[in-house]
Amino acid sequence: MLHLAALGLLLTSTVTLSSSAVVLENGMPILWAQTASQVTELPVQNGILTPNPWHFLNRQSFYRLMIGATDPYMSYMGKNSTDNPMWGVSMELGWMLTSGRLGDPTGSTTCGLQTGDTMCISPESFGGCMNYFTSALPFLSAAQQGFLGENIQVQLQVPVGVEGFCTTFAECSTSHPDAMSKWDAFYQVLQQP
């Protein structure tokens, strides 16, 4: 009985928290219209794609580009364009932004706070750090597997003084081999008839 009460409290809390943050604009994730719809809209330096995953619009662009690249292979998931499973993580990222979960909880910077750069994702934010791995790793794998175009090289930007986050396909494959091999397998299976 205690487990049911705890589950009820958890569900009530989740509904309350979810309803307090705006996650949709015109039926799309928040700020979707401002994200990159083409890989060429992301920053490039010396022929290498250099997006900043610590900037909300760049990270949300990862999801938009991956959804666009995988939608043709996802018809078995449903008939709507929003049936792609990656929509869930895109919506979660929007919720984290509008609920303040991407801001610096230490207060030592104004990153992600209403009084600072609202598009900044703080490396001190637990949610922002965990979401890094559900956005950057699949994005790097998508690029490696050719889903973003042929011979796309990616070097993700890192805030000064931040360590522990891989920034290239090779680096992520070394530091997170299990996760990267599973993302690679996901993209490879999608391309099979």
UniProtKB/TrEMBL annotation:
Principal subcellular localisation of the protein: secreted
Keyword Glycoprotein (UniProt): yes
Leader sequence segment: 1-20
Taxonomic superkingdom: Eukaryota
Pfam families xrefs: Leg1
InterPro entries: Leg1
Protein localization: Secreted
Keywords: Glycoprotein, Secreted, Signal
PANTHER family linked to this entry: LEG1 (PTHR18820), PROTEIN LEG1 HOMOLOG (PTHR18820:SF1)
Family: Belongs to the LEG1 family.
Name of the protein in question: Uncharacterized protein
Species this protein is from: Ameca splendens
